């Protein structure tokens, strides 16, 4: 199929870092993702778009073993550095999570315990991946936050998640994902819960990550505008199936499937 | 699918250099998912059948007794379990098995009537409060709060004691402390149903209050109320037996499990079966009611299954 | 500031409840139909004329209207005067207070035992329940499912046994069969406290395991657990630092509510094991229709219960930063 070749080309021959092969995912015997294959290359940003319920979030959660109750990769493989991730035991998986593969959630505030201070939780995560002095941690995280155009970092680290605005929480989410400098960043609808201004901020920050840290990124979004801004390649999901996969520009300017055409035309006021 | 094959090959060539632990398979790994079947219906049916058997036994208790549960025969007093008397005899020579069976009548039906009473009273008060609102609602709900502020059994013990004992006074005592729970459930459900669109329509179309309550509110609040009361029967049975054990409920010679145990507890070191037989009977009955209640709740509310 | 306001408003809410409790207790004894004078003279055994009785009633203020009597009684109660026992003639309040420590000791020990037993078991059940649905390996799923079901089954059994039955079972096995403990309490000693504590703790633990399991299972489904897992935090750390902390307020509330049945439960257990506390005192008083004694028991147990719930509410505020810092829900 033509789309595959173009996808290969777009990566400029760089190494694949994460590879999905014929992945099926089921919840309690009910298939929600079926036969999806794609590859993420070093330094690439892959966008996964589709309606809610299309299985796009499930797809990236599977890579981190975060499918939750009743979820299972029933067929196929997810390769990362020679490891088939669905078969990696929980204890080993948690060493990879955070340090090598990190995730940004739709509501990053939700991904932090509401009854504990942000700084404590981030430091705790840091400690789980090796020794770190509190002072050193604070310095590093502050630098990272400043890079993400935050000031007043001390106050933020001393706050509870509910004390911050949605946009601020989301940037904390980005910082917490980036603090261990992971190889792969998985972003699950990072802009969906935000207002337009905050959305723009987050997109800017994702660009910084891409350009400065050269992290490989998968961004799951139903917002084609966001995908166009950030992603090199695009995977379109519908009802658990991949309907289109190729360089973002090709997919958007010359969509092959009817569904992609519909999806693009439904976006009104697309920038550019 | 061609797309899948292509990507597999392409990936295989690029990643082989990094791969250290396992090599990639040509065919995708299959992982079987065993989905636990939750046979809620079968469970409901099974425990329902057990419950029915229990109720039949309790209804015709006397005819299931091998001996007259009240006939005293001091010649055979305090016998250990034997072929004729599998639970032995008590100090009046009464057959313990017969007494345990006979006691099911009072023990089970007093709990059932207690739960029926508090369900009806509590639900009625709840619906009236939720429907009418206003001062009546405030007064009744304050009263409910008052009862909830008491440690239930302490109050029940005092009431039963003051009323002079007897199974009726135990039932009334427990009813006095237990109705507020039902009133609260019924009230909050009524309030939420009341504001729904079709209720407004029904009111505007001029349906009478009683008709609205029977046609629209009752069916909506019935499920949680029934589930709550089913799950309450076991607890109530234990509390009633507890009051009887203290001498505040059923009085001898009436056979009732709690009072039987308080009669026989002095035999604990000599004929322990005389204590454990009625105790076991309470345990088994409560268990059946609880298991049925659980199954019923799961059946009525699929979201809670497996919790 | 916010917290202080909250405390104050909760304090004010206590007033009507306390008035209600005392009123109800007072009314109950009035309805019982027998007044102190009749009891006093019937205990004396002599036939007394109506005039003498009326004179005695007037002296004690019993001819006054009901509501006036209530306030007089309430006033006396607050100064620690709750009358004399019909049976022993001793001061009711003092008798009650002298027996209270034994009951409080029993209560505290049972609550402690309950927490020690049910929190780990409830956690184990919840974690197993979650993993039985989320492990990749199907053998693991089965093992976890079995663990969960065993714990649940145990709690189910405990929930279906009345406490007096548990008490007699323990007595039979631990004291009579094995001879490990004295059958009947020989005063307030550690040895004689074992069985009553176990009895109360078993019933409470059975109930509480379910609640811990439910609360933890709810928390495990929250986004922050997924978040912590995504950051690579160990399960044990997630459980102890975040999950238990977040479910603490729920668990505390449930524990406080179960203290109500515990206070009632002590009555049966104390009289079975002859533990010399207020529960046994109350059962004896009820059997002998010693109304002032019953009244003191009901009123003070209710006050203690209300107090425990109040303290729990306050702790709730301290624990949960969302409430403490006055955040919107």
Q: Class by helix and strand content of chain A?
A: alpha/beta
Q: How many β strands of chain B by DSSP?
A: 0
How do the SSEs of chain B run, as a string of H and E?
A: HHHHHHHHHHH
Termini distance of chain B?
A: 41 Å
pLDDT averaged residue by residue of chain B? 81
| Portion in strands of chain B | under 5%
Unreliable spans of chain A are 1-13
Helical content of chain A (DSSP H or I, runs of 4+): 25-40%
Provide the CATH superfamily of the domain at 105-305 in chain B: MetI-like
Percentage of residues in helical conformation of chain B: 55-70%
Major β-sheet profile of chain B: none
Instruction: Kindly state the number of beta strands of chain A.
Output: 10
Multimeric state of these chains?
Answer: heterotrimer
**CATH fold title of chain A:** Rossmann fold
Identify the overall geometry of chain B. Answer: globular
Radius of gyration of chain A: 18 Å
CATH topology of the domain at 105-305 in chain B: MetI-like fold
Q: If helices are DSSP runs of H or I spanning 4 or more residues, what is the number of helices of chain A? A: 11
SS-derived structural category of chain B: mainly alpha
The top-level CATH class of the domain at 105-305 in chain B is Mainly Alpha
Distinctive features:
heterotrimer; A: 272 residues; alpha/beta; Rossmann fold; six-stranded mixed sheet; four-stranded antiparallel sheet; 11 helices; globular; disordered N terminus; C: 329 residues; mainly alpha; MetI-like fold; 13 helices
Structure description:
The complex is a heterotrimer of chains A (272), B (307) and C (329). Chain A is an alpha/beta fold and 272 residues long. Chain A is built from 11 helices and 10 strands. In chain A, the strands form 2 sheets. Chain A has a 6-stranded mixed β-sheet, sandwiched between helices. The model of chain B is unreliable at 1-23 (pLDDT under 50). By secondary structure, chain C is mainly α. Chain C has a domain at 95-289: MetI-like (MetI-like fold), CATH 1.10.3720.10. Chain C is built from 13 helices and no strands. Chain C has helices at residues 2-31, 36-44, 50-60, 66-78, 92-134, 138-159, 163-177, 190-220, 223-230, 235-273, 278-287, 291-319, 321-324. The radius of gyration of chain C is 25 Å and the shape is flat. The chains are: A alpha/beta (272), B mainly alpha (307), C mainly alpha (329). Chains in contact: A-B, A-C, B-C. At the A-C interface, strand 4, helix 3 and helix 4 of A face helix 5, helix 9 and helix 10 of C.
